[in-house]
Design a protein that fits this description.
Blueprint (H helix, E strand, L loop, with lengths): L3 E4 L6 H12 L2 E4 H10 L3 H12 L5 H13 L7 E4 L5 H13 L6 E6 L2 H14 L7 H13 L4 H6 L4 E5 L4 H13 L1
Parallel strand pairs: 1-3, 1-4, 2-3, 4-5
Helix pairs in contact: 1-9, 2-3, 4-5
The protein binds adenosine-5'-diphosphate.
Adenosine-5'-diphosphate binds next to helix 2 and helix 3.
């Protein structure tokens, strides 16, 4: 069983690559962004708590995010591998994830970071806005999300690098070539 984290700034292509990885490897996909969007769309108690925060482009507090993630893990006791997308975004989340995996006698085996420049990310999100109108893609909110990535989330990378679990893949180019580079990490 392989557990993988896909990592990168907003608009790096995590969602696109995740879909392809699920098809090929049968991972259970856990995207905290999708989960939060589901809760806000369905106006659950959790959705009500996080709506404003998400719409501002800020990170949801660790305590809320980590407990939602734990719940999701517990729903899938027989998963043949997890793909985490948009989680962890802080070192506290990374530590919690390791703890949860260890409790199930498992581990995060690989972290694949999609390397994409800020300029590329901005141009992709500008295009995405034309077809998928996400409230947090408006300019000031997008700026906040990019700031959150470069101020907080980026610090997760040395956490995994120091433990030799990190591989950086060039995230600019043809979708299938990027996918092949990720598969090469998993299959090696
Ligand atoms: P992006 O396109 O910026 O990668 P996501 O779809 O992954 O965004 O997440 C959307 C929003 O959900 C984030 O801006 C944040 O408010 C919240 N969120 C998602 N995952 C996390 C997380 N691991 N920790 C804190 N907040 C999160």
């Amino acid at each position: 069983m392989i557990n993988l984290v896909i990592f990168g700034p907003p608009g790096a292509g995590k969602g696109t690559q995740s879909e392809k990885l699920i098809q090929k490897y049968g991972f259970v996909h856990i995207s905290t962004g999708d989960l939060f969007r589901w809760h806000t769309k369905n106006d659950t108690a959790l959705g009500k708590r996080v709506k404003e925060i998400m719409n501002s482009g800020a990170l949801v507090p660790d305590e809320i995010t980590i407990s939602m993630l734990k719940e999701e893990l517990d729903k899938n006791p027989n998963a043949n591998g997890f793909l985490f997308d948009g989680f962890p975004r802080t070192v506290a989340q990374a530590e919690a994830l390791d703890r949860f995996m260890k409790e199930n006698n498992s581990a995060i085996h690989f972290v694949v970071a999609l390397d994409v420049t800020e300029q590329e990310v901005r141009s992709r999100i500008a295009k995405r806005k034309l077809v998928d109108n996400r409230a947090d893609d408006e300019e000031d909110k997008l700026n906040k999300r990019i700031d959150e990535y470069f101020n907080k989330t980026i610090h997760v990378l040395p956490y995994y690098k120091n433990q030799n679990r990190l591989t950086t893949v060039n995230g600019i180019g043809v979708i299938d070539e990027i996918f092949n580079s990720i598969c090469a990490v998993i299959d090696k």
